[in-house]
Structures are given as C-alpha cells and as structure tokens.
TrEMBL record:
The keyword Nucleotide-binding does not apply. Transmembrane segments: none annotated. Pfam families: 3HCDH (PF00725), 3HCDH_N (PF02737). It is an enzyme of class 1 (oxidoreductase). This is 3-hydroxyacyl-CoA dehydrogenase. Keywords: Oxidoreductase. One of its GO terms (molecular function) is NAD+ binding. InterPro entries: 3-OHacyl-CoA_DH_NAD-bd (IPR006176), 3HC_DH_C (IPR006108), 6-PGluconate_DH-like_C_sf (IPR008927), 6PGD_dom2 (IPR013328), NAD(P)-bd_dom_sf (IPR036291). Its EC number is 1.1.1.35.
Length: 503
C-alpha cells in the first residue's frame, strides 16, 4: 500500500448504506479520494446525496469552510461495478452481514485490485478468519470496524485476522487516524473488542432482573447516578434493540465455548419473543410514546413517611460506615440496643449471609452500598423477613441529607458492585486472552460505549483486590462460575499491582 498519508491515496467503499456513507464522509474529510459502489440500483447516488447533505450541514455549523466542503465533494467518484476499484490503495467493504456474500465480494475485489491494495471489512459480527479463508492473499485482509454514526463515533477497531500482516495493521491504523478516528487493534475473536466487552453491563443487568432484585428503573438509576453511566443497562438495551443485542450476546456466548460469564438470562429472551424490542417497537424494558420517551415507569426512588432514624447500631466494626452514619446526624451506638436499625456495608455479600456470619438481627438489618455511593443516590437493601420500619427509617435518614434512595431486595453485591465487578472482570479476561492491550481495551470501551472508565481503569479505581473480593463473595454465595475471577485480575490483586501491568 502507498503511504497512508499521501495526498494521492484512493479508498474504495463497497456499500452505500448508513455505515458506508459514514466511511465515505470521514474519508473525504480526511483528504482522500473515494470510489463508491453499491449493488442496489440508485444506491450509490442516494448514498452520495446523504453524504453531501451532511457535509453541507458541517458548513452551516461552522465546522468546515465552503472551499473545504467543495474539495471534499470533488474527491468522490461513483462507480458502476467492482471493476471500478482498480487502482485503489485500500477497499473497505460495508455490505450487510452475510458470510457468503462477503466471501464472494472479497474474491471479486481481489481479482480487480493490485496485490498491495488492502481489503478491509466493516463487519461487526463475522470473524475475519472466515471472510479471508477463501482469499488468495490473506495477509492484506483485516477488519476495520467503525461505529454508528461513523462521523460522530471516534473509535475504529482494526481487527487482526490470523494471517493479517503487521504492515497491514500499521497501514490501517494510519488510515483510521487520517479519517479522524481513534484506532485500537483487536484480536479476531467473537465480538472483537467493544461488542465482547459490552456484554457484562447488559447481561448482569438482566441477571438482576431475573432474580427480581430490582426494577429496570431502579437498576438504571443506580448505574447512572452512582456510577456515572449515561444510560443504565435496560435503557441501553432498549435503545440498541432487543432484536439486536440478544442475538449478538448469543453469538459471543457460543463463540467463547459458552463461558457463563458471557451468558444472558430468560428476561432477555422473553422480551425478544414478545416482540418488545425497545424504542423501535414502542416497548421493551419500558413503554415508549411516539417521541421515544419512556412512559409509565415506576420511580426508582424509595418513598415513605417514616421519621429518620435517630440512632443506629453497626453489624460489625466499620470506620467508614460509622463516619457515614454520623455524617447523616445519627448516633452510632456502642452496642445494639435491640430496637434501632442495624447498619452494614457489605462488599460482595448479601444481607442474609452477613447476618448469619455476624449474628446481627436480620429483622433490623439494613445494608448500604458504600463502594458505589454518590452525592445523588444511595442504594440500600434488606434480607428476607426484615422489618420495613427499619429500612424506611434508614432511607429517611439518608434522604434527609439530600440523597435519593433506591431500596432493593437482598443481593450479593447490591446492583452497582455486581455490574461494575463483572465489567472489570471481563475487561481483565479480554487482556488475559489477548483480545487487545489493556490501554486499548479501556480506550475502546470509553469511546465505543461511552463508559465513564474503561474496565481496567475501573478495576484500578475500585482496587483489584476489592473487585476480586466482590467476585469471590458472589461466586461463593451463588456457587456459579459466572463470577469466577479472571486470572489476569487475580494475579494483580494478589501482588498489589495495577490491572494495567502487562505479563
């Protein structure tokens, strides 16, 4: 391939749908000549018109001057067939997800372009190894996976197939940068990097629903207010579409030999079978009006008329919990008086386990998540058989200080500890099996899914040892390998190292 930064670089794009249009736009604004082909009659023309309209809007918004816009438009050529790709330096395929179609298309492209022309697929779900298996020169084939909408989503995954050369990877990284994207290099594996890493957020949310720990609104509110996500897992699934995220989850779960850390649970499939596919159908985890706004969802905020607790006991010594309670204006008793609420701040445990371990009266036990506590919201939970008066008195005490309160059923790891620990653990496992380097895993999840912290940065922020403790408690309580700690995370936790430390 020619120097990716040369002014004469020509990129071919096959497929003028939404993704193809975005790739064309960032290629044109990156100073490259583009040849666009679409097999549908009028498809290339419609794609061109859509791209030019968006370039015009950039001018209107002051993000591109008129001379630059006209120059960009002038670099686009529509071609009638694959033969028009002759002379391209790189060709990017952006047709729909059909393996046989892609193989046939790649064979036609190979017969047309020179041996040093790179051929990349924008596939999001098909292994590059499968696409390249029938190719003549597999070393120049890779994935170049953009995210929709391409002009707004800065990330692009450069997917290294089993036979992709380093020169090809380096050239595609440079090409992605010229397009104004942030490239990350990922291993050819089910879901690549972002779709693989995103499973923990949504599937653990589904698991919480499966166990009836909390409602969709409660789960989403906790993850937004206590952890900084723009959307909670239920909102996100409704936005992407249940008909999209369930099949992707199944593919990745199957692709990794049914690893229980990647599986989803019945409420996910129940929504799919019911046709409740999210915003697009007007119903998913939530109901939506014609504008796409959620309607009729119960409040995630616990409400009661109870008076705030004046005094509390602690289930076990805990300096941070004592400071929290005293900061709310409560007296922390030196010994249980037999009537006041009993506070605990478990890490990974549920209330039933903690009550059994400490001997605390489960009827008055109220647990507070101090690991993921924000000024906006606190999460509390109680065990089976608890007195609602104790819960309500603690909720009122917290609410008096200005925090909203979400009260959930008993759960190892509350809501946030569970989801966050699973995100960190999956990121660590991806590092362990070489999906990508730790820093690139973080970059991909922050840019591709708008995570406030990448999985390994999250592990470091919470503490690898604490993340491991949460997972270990959940595995012990549930007996499930779903919560087994990645060796990557375990080794670094035991040695007191950052989750980013390489092997």
């Amino acid at each position: 391939m020619n120097d990716p930064n040369t002014a004469e670089l020509t990129v071919g794009v096959v497929g003028a749908g939404a993704m193809g249009q975005g790739i064309v736009q960032v290629s044109l604004t990156g100073g490259m000549a583009v040849r666009l082909h679409d097999a549908r009659p009028g498809g290339a023309e419609a794609g061109r018109d859509a791209v030019f309209a968006r370039i015009d809007r950039l001018v209107e918004k002051g993000r591109l001057d008129e001379a630059g816009a006209e120059a960009a438009k002038g670099r686009l050529t529509l071609i009638d067939g694959i033969a028009g790709l002759a002379g391209c330096d790189a060709v990017i395929e952006a047709v729909f997800e059909d393996l046989q179609l892609k193989r046939k298309l790649f064979a036609e492209i190979e017969e047309t372009v020179s041996d040093d022309c790179l051929i990349a697929s924008n596939t999001s779900s098909i292994l590059i190894a499968s696409i390249a298996s029938a190719a003549r020169k597999r070393d120049r084939i890779a994935g170049l996976h953009f995210f929709n909408p391409v002009p707004l989503m800065k990330l692009v995954e450069v997917v290294r197939g089993p036979e992709t050369s380093q020169a090809t990877v380096d050239a595609l990284v440079a090409l992605g940068k010229r397009m104004g994207r942030v490239p990350v290099v990922a291993r050819d594996a089910p879901g690549f990097l972002v779709n693989h890493g995103g499973r923990a957020f949504t599937t653990e949310g589904i698991r919480l629903l499966h166990e009836r720990v909390a409602t969709p609104a409660e789960i989403d509110a906790v993850m937004r207010d206590c952890c900084g996500y723009r959307m909670g897992p239920c909102e996100l699934m409704d936005l992407t579409g249940i008909d999209v995220n369930l099949p992707v989850t199944d593919i990745i779960h199957e692709g990794f030999s049914q690893d229980p850390r990647l599986k989803t649970f019945f409420p996910h499939r129940a929504l799919f079978e019911a046709g409740r596919h999210g915003r697009k159908t007007g119903a998913g985890h939530y109901d939506y009006d014609e504008t796409g706004r959620i309607t009729g969802a119960p409040s995630p905020d616990h409400a009661s008329d109870a008076a705030p607790a004046k005094a509390v006991a602690l289930a076990e010594p805990d300096a941070a919990l004592k400071a929290f309670a005293e900061g709310l204006g409560a007296t922390v008793l030196d010994a249980d008086d037999g009537t006041s609420p009993i506070l605990a701040a478990p890490v990974g445990e549920d209330c039933a386990t903690l009550a059994h371990r400490t001997g605390a009266d489960h009827r008055r036990l109220v647990a507070v998540d101090l690991v993921f506590l924000s000024e906006a919201r606190a999460t509390i939970m109680t065990p089976p058989g608890a007195d609602p008066k104790a819960r309500d008195a603690v909720a009122a005490l917290i609410a008096r200080a200005g925090r909203k309160v979400t009260a959930i059923k008993d759960s190892p790891g509350f809501v946030a500890q569970r989801i966050q620990a699973m995100i960190a653990n999956l990121g660590a496992e991806m590092a362990q099996i070489g999906v990508a380097a730790p820093e690139e895993i973080d970059t991909a999840m922050e840019l591709g899914l708008n995570y406030p912290k990448g999985p390994l940065a999250l592990a470091d922020a919470v503490g690898p040892d604490r993340v491991m403790a949460i997972l270990a408690a959940m595995q012990d309580i549930t007996g499930e390998d779903r919560y087994r700690t990645s060796l990557w995370l375990r080794r670094r936790a035991l040695l007191g190292l950052s989750a980013h430390v390489p092997d």
